[in-house]
């Protein structure tokens, strides 16, 4: 797995949300969010970013909340690509829970059975 | 005389020891020895107690206690050995009798001897640490008779044999048995060691064998009857000729062999086990099983578990069987009957055992909630009862029925769904005037309020208030109109407070000119006395009574819905109307319009309109005619749809959606309440707390709770902790 993103990267990432959204709106339009993610995760590589964007377009189709945005980085940072350390009781935003379900149901990730 | 010194009088002891003559001691002993012989030979009458006592006393006094004591031992032992022989020689049944007789004699002898030796007993015995005479006599009996090699095992075998025969049905000499066991008890631990222990072992193997036999050939009920009988036999046996301390031991042996070892097999016995007994209401058998099983470890647990499993399974089948679900009222009645059945069983057979009550409750709670239509169906059941089911029923019986319904209500996890349906059904009942008893309605509200609090019922009560107020309003209206109304149609209005009633807002349709006049008059009157309010006619909820004249001057009075009235009135000016024309003229929404037309034209006995083509369904190019040829044997014909029915699938979805929507703010309110007081909490704790706060109304979905938390984060009521992402903070 790629190295841990730097503190600077995190700051830039979280700033990107505020910068990219429309003034007066609380959430970030989906298309814009996807564009930003493609950009950002080119800097620090997260291999699931394409699946994430696909999933959102398929199942969500709505704006992205700030909490979801910032928690996604945590998710990408901490959870390994087999999702073996993903905890359903881990207080992840529900969108991320659904993403995990999407990955497992479609066989994209084989979660190790424990 | 000169004064002389007075000498104190002194008595001095002998300067030499005075010994009693040993020959004297020997002579004295011989007297006593002879006496003992006489006593054992039943010749005591010739002896002088006083003399013998004195002799024994003297011996002890003169320090010959030792000689006396050992002499006693030797003499008694000698006699006992003879006695042993005579007992050993006894044949067959005389054995016990001889033993008993000799024991009695020995005791008598011992008493006399003890009396004679009392001084020794009180002085020499304690100071030399010897066994007192009475106990000595018992010990000697024990050692020389009971533990004699020729007697010991024979005695035990005889006793056990007699008990065995009695168990097999023979009558034995209980009095004799009593004496023998009493003898053993008197001998200290002899009873437990020599008799009781082997007795219990032999009994265990007896009952082990018997229970094996019985379990093969008896059904459960029979077996339990036999076990119960054996238990009472053993208790009776103990009371007659065994030590009372043996009772708990022997009963525990029987319980172990007959019940504990076969519990599993008995309970699950095909065609006669626990489940069969429950199904067939075999109160006696069940009571017996309960009383027997409670004596063994985990006996009741087993009964309870099997009952629970059975209940859950039958319950599950009941709530998933489409046949049973066709009629909601029937369905609920089944539930109530099932509950009654088990309440009766628990009361009659299970001693009102609380743990069984709890198992019953938890099973009901489990399967009632398996079907998510249960709240709707229970409300429909109440609706049916309040509409007609409780007609003519006494006040107390009404209470009984409503209390039973409340009991089912308590099991519901989704009480808010019930509330929604109850409101709907209540509204229909109130507006159509179809309630059997106002008191019963009120009583139900009170019960719901007691159970769920004021908030649950405040809107329902609002509905009742509206009904009452409307009556007053209407009176006021007619009083104010005086003679102006004349021949026109009479209007009855109910003014409903929006928010209390489950109305679906819909635009009013076009009312016929015949009634517009009076409707407007009412509106003016009402708004005159209630400025600032807005009135909207709910044309989808009203009814009308129309006088219609058909072909052969037949007059009928039709009771229809408001929509139907609007449609029918159109035919006063024309004979034929197309679907489209009707739709345009009335502006009734399409789905409602189709349903109305169907009930006006396609139902036998109610077809006041004729449709072309004659098909069952309403198509947009159908044409409708006033049916001159309509006949009915009733003068008053009812056509409107009024009674509450179970919802169709789409309606059900809609209601459920509304319920889910209503839950969101409740969940949010709970989250905010909790976070406000706790300030910082982790995710799982919030979920637990919210669930526990709301469980009296419904069971919140953890996913929904999570979404609400996120919504609250977005609206900046909460935030995630910077260090630990699983913690949330309350933002003031």
UniProtKB/TrEMBL annotation, chain A:
<dbReference type="InterPro" id="IPR014764">
    <property type="entry name" value="DCN-prot"/>
</dbReference>
<dbReference type="Pfam" id="PF03556">
    <property type="entry name" value="Cullin_binding"/>
</dbReference>
<dbReference type="GO" id="GO:0032182">
    <property type="term" value="F:ubiquitin-like protein binding"/>
</dbReference>
<dbReference type="GO" id="GO:0045116">
    <property type="term" value="P:protein neddylation"/>
</dbReference>
<dbReference type="InterPro" id="IPR005176">
    <property type="entry name" value="PONY_dom"/>
</dbReference>
<dbReference type="GO" id="GO:0031624">
    <property type="term" value="F:ubiquitin conjugating enzyme binding"/>
</dbReference>
<protein>
    <recommendedName>
        <fullName>Defective in cullin neddylation protein</fullName>
    </recommendedName>
</protein>
<dbReference type="GO" id="GO:0097602">
    <property type="term" value="F:cullin family protein binding"/>
</dbReference>
<dbReference type="InterPro" id="IPR042460">
    <property type="entry name" value="DCN1-like_PONY"/>
</dbReference>
<feature type="domain" description="DCUN1">
    <location>
        <begin position="1"/>
        <end position="104"/>
    </location>
</feature>
<comment type="function">
    <text>Neddylation of cullins play an essential role in the regulation of SCF-type complexes activity.</text>
</comment>
<dbReference type="GO" id="GO:0000151">
    <property type="term" value="C:ubiquitin ligase complex"/>
</dbReference>
From TrEMBL, chain B:
<keyword id="KW-0833">Ubl conjugation pathway</keyword>
<comment type="similarity">
    <text>Belongs to the cullin family.</text>
</comment>
<dbReference type="Pfam" id="PF26557">
    <property type="entry name" value="Cullin_AB"/>
</dbReference>
<dbReference type="GO" id="GO:0006511">
    <property type="term" value="P:ubiquitin-dependent protein catabolic process"/>
</dbReference>
<dbReference type="GO" id="GO:0031625">
    <property type="term" value="F:ubiquitin protein ligase binding"/>
</dbReference>
<dbReference type="InterPro" id="IPR059120">
    <property type="entry name" value="Cullin-like_AB"/>
</dbReference>
<dbReference type="InterPro" id="IPR016158">
    <property type="entry name" value="Cullin_homology"/>
</dbReference>
<keyword id="KW-1017">Isopeptide bond</keyword>
<dbReference type="InterPro" id="IPR045093">
    <property type="entry name" value="Cullin"/>
</dbReference>
<feature type="domain" description="Cullin family profile">
    <location>
        <begin position="373"/>
        <end position="601"/>
    </location>
</feature>
<protein>
    <recommendedName>
        <fullName>Cullin family profile domain-containing protein</fullName>
    </recommendedName>
</protein>
<dbReference type="Pfam" id="PF10557">
    <property type="entry name" value="Cullin_Nedd8"/>
</dbReference>
<dbReference type="InterPro" id="IPR019559">
    <property type="entry name" value="Cullin_neddylation_domain"/>
</dbReference>
<dbReference type="InterPro" id="IPR001373">
    <property type="entry name" value="Cullin_N"/>
</dbReference>
<keyword id="KW-0832">Ubl conjugation</keyword>
<dbReference type="Pfam" id="PF00888">
    <property type="entry name" value="Cullin"/>
</dbReference>
